[in-house]
Amino acid sequence: MELVILQTSDAFRYSRMLRATSQTAIAYCERHGFAYESFIGIKRGFRGAHAAFNRIMMLDELVDRGYRGWALHMDADAYVYDLDFDLRAYLADKQDRSAIMATIPGEHVPWHINSGVLFFNLGHPQGIALIRDWKRRFMAISDARLRELTSVWDGENDQIMLYKSLDRNEALREPVFFEDASLFNDCEGRFIRQYLNSLEGDLARRTEAIEAAVIDIFRNASGASASAAEEKLVGELYRAILRRNPDPGSRGYVDLLLAKGTGAVPEIVRSLIDSPEYQGRLATEAASPTGRT
To answer: pLDDT tier at 224 (50, 70, 90 boundaries)?
Structure first.
């Protein structure tokens, strides 16, 4: 299964935020064998806010390039929270879907969606048709009108245009899978988290919060892998010296390795050799006619 993660921002206001969130997207792609593309700047428009339309152009360019896999767009304020999430398994039964979008919590119409995180199946004809219709609506905005749009909250924004494509064309809407926002369009999302402007209107504070969250993700991932490595080493020492698997009490040795590194190995070896269990076995073996039990 092919999948590419797309991200974009303007060159000034959101580029710092993108530098933070892109770390998680790139790490996720490297871990799972997916592709990653980003664009900084304005594809069509005149203001930084117009970078919100870049996603439309990037998806359309993928279609023109002949790409027919899945495309996952993540806003600059969205980051991969669960680096181990099995996206292949999640998408396995959705190959007949043209897109996957999250319904805004509290909305009764499923296609009242948040465009911050979107999946498009470019191997599905209606996935391509939806992207083309979305672009058509965008290109229908004249340059003169586009110059007047100073904010993503103005009437003609990317999210409203996508909603109109879905609302006014049942054929485009029918094959779309509408997901619960708690998976990938929420500040506490299980797979992808998005720190929306509605949660923190101050851009600097929102960026700092996202940067801190990204640091925690990698710190936790590093800690988990380190703990696993240390547990493996302790297990090998137990089996070599005590001839058995470690018990819950071995956690202290794992913590010692985490604190001191491999320099703690001699200390652990001495502790195991000096233990009553090991000394008792030596005494038993010495008393045995064969010298071993």
So the answer is: low
